């Protein structure tokens, strides 16, 4: 086989998640570039589809790549609903799918499938790790999240982690997605007076939340925990975020040679510092490369390729990355502290954390 | 006679493909009152609309106060000193009576303000009782008073009343006729369309009868009355 | 039989805010009579018609139709039992052809709800009614024009045509002659005269020539209350009426 | 829940309500008074926020930014009215829906091209960067209180403009019968252009004022769109006080919805809206 | 013109382009959705901004029956059920919302749609999840032992949807010239006068609202079948706005307006997003140009062409 491998990138290039979509795309392409524009020894042809984060168009968009463009692999996406439709299409058509962000548990849970890999996280993972961290210092906590699947899953993870560490979640506060009027919840939080708070909101919401939290004077009285809460938005959050502790599988301030090189290359290529989304995109490319290399670029040998990917030990900017039986990342979770515009990694809270994925039936 | 303030020369007006006015010539001199008559659908309103620019004649021209109005916007023509009360009134339903009147207030070209809010209310005391009402809440006749009053608030040189007294009680209708007499004496020219040809011809200097978009008669009230066959043929009287 | 009372009101009252637009209005409309309703502008004539047709609900009082209390009925229910009205401010279907305007009115009498898939325009019984109504209001010649393209006077004729096509027994006409030319007015008066034998007609009109030409009974309202009801002679002779409404009209007619 | 808490939540609701009004104020003019269905309202709002971000990063002065930004936006509004909207007044209102939808797409793309897709924020000016203590653990940012005052001023100004001036009466008249207004010698084209640009200016103004308290982000426009329409409609089309009252009601529904019925908070404002409109089919204040 | 169009549609699957066949199915489904809305907007003058509620509900009925509760996957049961359920709910909602008019109606319909959106977003018993639900498969068309056709085959699904769309068009055409249809148009033109000449306007509007709701339910059902998934976004106001936009773009109050609008809208999106990255920008520009220069919607091109045709011999 000599022709190019067709890589279908189905990501949001418009709408609220545009930035994340671009981060993933950049990361992916950066790795390919580093390999001289090749994966598994074959040149790469990209086919990009803007999924608009609209699940009602997901089926069509995925089919556009699979049935029209006949891609060898799909990479996507951010929005969980869209991603789970992609997973469905992937399973139906036996197409390889790499999920570079969407954290919906079922993608590597109830809906898991041999040809679906995730290079990011399941919502449960960072929540759980955050819970472990919070439990180290606090006995009680309150969670705040948007009322949608990702929020529920993340909060569930936090609760598990927090309770495992001996803490107790007093109350789960939530507000409709994507409402950003947090004031009533902050007021309620202040009356409950827990020792800590955990929050899961995304994008512009996280910026506003962190600012509102500080403006309400809560930052010093009730320490705030979160996973993504400062990721990629530190500049916009300004002083409000300084000193915030978060837990994630990556931090731009993570010190390891791979990450240093990655940051340097990324900054050179795109003129901006990478965030976790770029890393997840980068690793998606790495993972696929590992699979392709094992079959010498012969995409027909699917089973072999999948086998290789399952066993891949990836040298990710985030550290060592392997995959669980359900094809979800097994990775370290770091404690990060916001300093300036960097999330400085201070500690590792849990090593090689895997999502138990009890509902997954591939063995 | 005085110089013409409003003049139409060979007007041809259309709605889409239907040809309504067929070369109408018409003049109105300063301070003159002219009655425009004709059966339903003969083109009276179309002529008036052509004069004020709502309908753009395809051929012919309109001259107002010595200026050709072709190419002018409706409001520019109105600003020359022409006030037009259309049939069906055109009350601003969402404005109160007071606002309906005040919004139109304007001095005439020479800066004179003969017609003020107070004077209009003097003429239509009924309106004074309804100042706070919305336009929609008025009775039909009250609306008619309001449009006439509103037209007067612009202190026009030319007042054009289409179906001037439609819906007005006899007493009020007579008041309108009287007012037209009064304003004519102050030098305002008027064009009147009204089904009551007798009342119209009593106070006008001249009358014009339209039939299918053509002028078939032009003359004084006396002349009109002297020709009953004209009346019966063109007005069905 | 001709003088049977079709529509009767008992102490009707309607207020708008503090204003009593109608107060203690009790009138009777009889078959075979043209009942003219006069009064200065804002006296409450249109309000009364609105109360009779159900367009606005009464504040208090009752309306009876053929002895039945219909105060609570909706406008369409009243229309269906035979009360038809026209509007002072033209109220037609401007975007439809003249024929369709009238045809819809005719259709209301026979909804044929069951026959969903039949062609309404080709239904014979409607067509007859439509042709007749168009003929009566002298619009047969422009039947296929769009209603909005009619002149003002023609629209007034159409206004009447729509009511007639609903085949009412009681006609409530709010200034039907307004906007119509002299000749058309005369024809309409003739038309109403022809209809009256089988109908009861309530006529609101400021055209005194027309009113005195056809009215059998006149009621004069002022400020929402009935001033007087009587024959044309009685009304003409009333000093109050002259002051409130007619003014010097007498002299002209005399 | 104790009284103190309820009163803080009430304060939250009032403050949020005033903010909603501010956001909807431009729409009150363009939609409520002129009758133009302007879906691009949110885009103008977003444009304001991005202007605030860009201009403050250049000049560092919020006040200056707001003045310049409002003027620029108003100019843009006038141009848009001249080029696009002025052709649609005589058409079916729904055509405006389509037109303004097209505008939304263009605005979003332009934003992405010019400023990118990052989330930004704008600094609160130093003289307002303090907080008022509230209860034992909480504080209330002074800037939010400042915004409330601004909002009340805007409400008052709008009310005076629309209800109390001749211009206001002419605009309202123009919305109900354009031709007749022209026949009275009033240049309705010019007037509408003015009002439209004022509406756009107000939308952008709201975006700018709100930027320091919120975020500057892609998609922020569509988020405020629906709630702005809700406010204008529930208040009764064209009524400034109605819109203000509606904003407060909606804010109360939202705030206390989140507190008392968190599981149903998402529909609280819609339930309130439906209830109000079923109770008063023409909004709170019928004009 | 119509015949050519339908023939082209009927022949399309012969090209054996599965993706494009599915695309056309999608457009046909959206056409039906727009068509159902046209009954309200174009013919009765009721501008609903919550029409997606019925669309989504139709899909969810299938999802709940077929996947969540696994009661039945039978086409002949689930499809009528979807239509009946949406008809029922639109009838009930209609009882409330039809009290309001104009802009107020727009917003009340939106409010109700948002409330339904919430149910399918948050209520677990209704499959509530922001991510929606993937379905167990296509409906089966078994009648007893007999299997007339298999919807799992793209071409079969294509012709099934095409047949339904044609049937719906036919139904609408007949309805619109029928007394009921005429009355609805009268209501759009002048509701007040309709009431005054004896039409129970509310009942007529309710009938229109229910019929339109149930057809939207049908469209939503097919949409779910096509995608093999449902999600709350099907009920979102974006979806309501999209279908309204399609209708306005195509031409309201025209039998073919909805169909033309759906085709134009989706094709514009497809073509632009294939050839340019800034496709939103071009889509926006295209829409604005269409509004400015085609006041009667895209369908008016057909009328203009026909106008030229007729004028030529004369
Ligand atoms: N908007 C329009 N479009 C098409 N034709 C029209 C339009 N308005 C009026 N017409 C036609 O033009 C002719 C003249 O109408 P016009 O309104 O000038 O008559 P008119 O003399 O004022 O009658 P009336 O006394 O009934 O008001 C009529 O035959 C009418 O049908
Ligand atoms: N909806 C309303 N709200 C408030 N006031 C109203 C309303 N409708 C009518 N009115 C008032 O009630 C009074 C009676 O109105 P109505 O229309 O019945 O008069 P009318 O006798 O028909 O007069 P006209 O001869 O001028 O038509 C008027 O003073 C009018 O201002
Ligand atoms: Mg006329
Ligand atoms: Mg009246």
Give a verbal description of the structure.
The complex is a heteropentamer of chains A (363), B (237), C (254), D (287) and E (314). With 237 residues, chain B is α/β, with parallel strands linked by helices. Chain B has 10 helices and 10 strands. Chain B is globular. Helices cover 37% and strands 24% of the residues of chain C. Chain C has helices spanning 45-53, 75-81, 98-107, 124-136, 152-165, 182-196, 208-214, 232-237, 239-246, 249-253, and strands at 5-16, 19-25, 28-30, 34-38, 60-65, 68-69, 83-85, 170-174, 200-204, 217-222, 225-230. In chain C, the strands form 2 sheets. In chain C, strands 7-8-9-4-10-11 form a 6-stranded mixed beta sheet, sandwiched between helices. The radius of gyration of chain C is 18 Å and the shape is globular. Chain C starts with a strand and ends with a helix. Residues 249-254 of chain C have low confidence and may be disordered. Chain E is mainly α. In chain E, helix 3 (52-68) packs across helix 8 (201-227) and helix 7 packs across helix 8. Chain E is globular. Chain A binds chain D through residues 14-16, 18-19, 22, 147, 173-176, 178-181, 183-188, 190-191, 193, 203-204, 207-208, 211, 215-218, 221-222, 233, 235-238, and chain D through 5, 8-9, 12-13, 15-16, 108-109, 112, 116-121, 123, 131, 133, 135-141, 143-144, 214-220, 223, 254-256, 258-259, 262-263, 265-266.
Q: What ligands are attached or bound here?
A: adenosine-5'-triphosphate, magnesium ion
The largest β sheet of chain E comes out as: 2 strands, antiparallel
Number of helices of chain A: 12
What strand line-up does the widest sheet of chain E have?
Answer: 1-2
Helix content of chain E: over 70%
How much of the residues of chain A is beta strand, in percent? 15-25%
Q: Which stretches of chain A are poorly predicted, pLDDT < 50 over at least 5 residues?
A: none
- Helix/strand order of chain A: EHEEHEHEEHEHEHEHHEHEHHHEEEE
Largest interface chains and counts: A-D, 40 and 45 residues
Task: Give a short account of the largest sheet of chain A.
Answer: 9 strands, mixed
Assembly state (oligomeric)? heteropentamer
Number of strand segments of chain E: 2
Q: Span between N and C termini of chain A?
A: 31 Å
Number-wise, the strands of chain A total 15
Low-pLDDT stretches of chain E are: none
Q: Which geometry of chain E do the CA atoms define?
A: globular
What's the alpha carbon Rg of chain E, rounded to whole Å? 20 Å
Helix and strand element order of chain E: HHHHHEHHHEHHHH
What is the general shape of chain A?
Answer: globular
Give descriptors for this structure.
heteropentamer; D: 287 residues; mainly alpha; two-stranded antiparallel sheet; 11 helices; 73% helix; globular; E: 314 residues; 12 helices; 1% strand; binds adenosine-5'-triphosphate; binds magnesium ion
